[in-house]
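User: Could you walk me through two proteins back to back? I'd like the raw sequence and the structure tokens for each, with a short line separating them so I can tell where one ends and the next begins.

Assistant: Of course. Protein one, sequence then structure:
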Amino acid sequence: MKSGHNAMKIQMKYWIRQLFLMSCILISLGNVSLASADTTRETEILLNWAENNYPQYFPSHQPTQQIDSWLFRFYPETNIYAGVNTSDNGVYTLGGPWGNDNPAYIDNLPNFLQTVGNGKLTDVIAIVTNGSNFSTALKSDGSVWEWGNRAGLEAITIPLQVGGLTDVSKLVSGELATIALKNDGTVWAWGDNSRGDLGNGTKINRQTSVDLVAISGLTDVIAIGESGAFSPSYSSSGLYAITQDGKLWVWGCLANEILDDSTIYPPSCPDSPRLPAIIEGLTDVINFKSRRSSSANNYYVLKRDGTVWAWGDNSYGQLGDGTTTARKTPTQAVELSDVIDIAIDQGIFEKADVPLKISVFVLRQDGTVWAWGNNDDNPLGVGSTASYVSVPTLIAGLTGIKKLAIGPYHKLALRNEAQFGHGDITMVNLEMAQQ
């Protein structure tokens, strides 16, 4: 090693030691500030990993502290410091087996992270994506991690923890923003806010985890989702939440269309911020589904009593009320109860100005499956050759069903001790083939 480099390293270690020793005084005076999440995410990952894997040196969880260009943690049980110099991205330790005279250089932070995690996440229970090139993962411990390219930010090449977000039970990635439901019933968001997806009454973007915001006015939330399901050539933002009292809240660019009230939410998305609003007249909601194109929209609600309510376009009888009349307010699907799940097929997208050919499938408590809506090429499997069916109709022969999986080219139903598919890739053009 060159002597000049050695001299510089010795000098650096001297100043590191001085800063660490200074920190002891500041800690005793209570003047050390916590480091902000956006400048310490990689440091947090490293130090958390060290605590989890080497408790003999780092036996307790300690807060990350900051002095000038230093981010570090002090472990009083072992009298060890571990930290990162943000000027050179070096990882250093002081005390314990590394000695108390000079901080020991371990490695460059990016190299260390690559070695530690190798870009891999463990104990992942859910992954969501915005449909392009950014992904977010939820781990079993309630922590949230993200990677990829988010518009306007430097690419994240290995999963990094979203700082300040813990005890999360569900993630949803909208077109522009990500939202997280915590076990305490609050909802938090970050990302692009130009269309009001953060639900905080502003249009200010909150692209990084340090900018996390709570969705305004939402407490006791039991479910969250995206209300902006879209066709391939038309998209827009929108999110929803269902609260413990059965109310459905919506916000974002689509709120005016769902609420059918352009006086509250102007049709032009960028014109105003969007706070969450309740869809009046709906109670006991437990599930919400939506489908939209540039010319028509459909919305479906499953209520706690097992009834299904819908509004929007009805060109193919997809509201299930026995008519083809469009509705601006929720209308109950006729002669249908005890529903436990809804699945929607929006068909093969054709033209931007043509309503989507919606087909609706529901699973009832007794294990039967019912369908209605568009029936071109007989996708409903109800034995009818009509172009549409406007009332819920039983699919004969399907019993004991536990789960539905619906797509534009095929429909699948899962029984106990059954599997999806029949073992080959031959196209089967049947109304509903038993597997």
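----
Protein two, same layout:
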Amino acid sequence: MQFTATQIAHLLQGIVEGDPNASVSKLSKIEEGGEGSLSFLANPAYTQYVYGTTASVVIIGKDFELTAPVKTTLVRVADAQGAFAKVLEMYNTIKLDKKGIAPQAVISDGATYGTDCYIGALAFIGENVKLGNNVKIYPQAYIGDNVTIGDDTTVFANVTIYSDCVVGKRCIIHSGTVIGSDGFRFATGPDGGAKIPQIGNVVIEDDVEIGANCAIDRATLGSTILRRGVKFDNLIHIAHNVEVGENTYYAAGGVVAGSTKIGKNCMFSGQVGIIGHLKIADGTIIAAQSGISKDTKAGEAYMGSPAFEVQKYRKSYIHFRNLEKLVERVNALEKAAKPQYTSSLGSLISSIA
């Protein structure tokens, strides 16, 4: 892929300063830019690099004032960071724009797929699978029987989607993730645990992204559900019959136990654990490594394990950090008061005698 400064300016509605024919074929950070690369300057902390960079083209804000000459060609835009993000999106779209069915792919009888699909080598597509238009199934992915995947969804290599699951449009599922594995349910008794069959499925709505090596368990009955716009980082486990509300973000290492219902627009930091059968209200924010053991209130932030409201946690944590000093003070007070208590006790015994 090769573009000129003029083409980039046209795409971003910008203005070229320098050589309009300057050509780029790769992207780079401004401090690492080389000939043939496109970079950007948005953070003032990196201003120094614009004067020495050897990147062929740099996207820069329209109001940025130069204090010295530059060697590079500039493309001035209203929002440098937003413009570069648009370039990244275009680059990624072109890079991942694969089409066609590899001869080594296995597609079972009754499976159907729409136009412009890609199915990579050694991918397996089960019976009665329905793939929409422009769906991309990368090599060695497994799509079980009766799965439905909507238009423009990408399933990267080594993803496993068990039977009967539903994936919406414009979703991204990264490598190593398992959708629809059995929920962890056993009927315990004196002779050990008997496995409870998990006959539900997983439903993933539109515009969901799931990171690498996540596990989304199927429901015992009904569905485990990820609502529209949910974004998961890597290494997240969602147990059976959980529901995650719209536009909720979950950073890496999170665990949600069975049947918990999470509201919309929540934000969970890394390694947050949530026990089962809770109701997490809309807009809940949870700090990293917190353990949630009770229902939350809408719009509240929580911290700690077990977690409670973040303001109360911070006040309590101040006391915790001063605990050693408090113990020393109590010990000193007890030591000072001990002779007095001993003298009073001796007088009491003498009067009784």
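The chain has a mean pLDDT of 92.

Let me know if you want the two compared in more detail.
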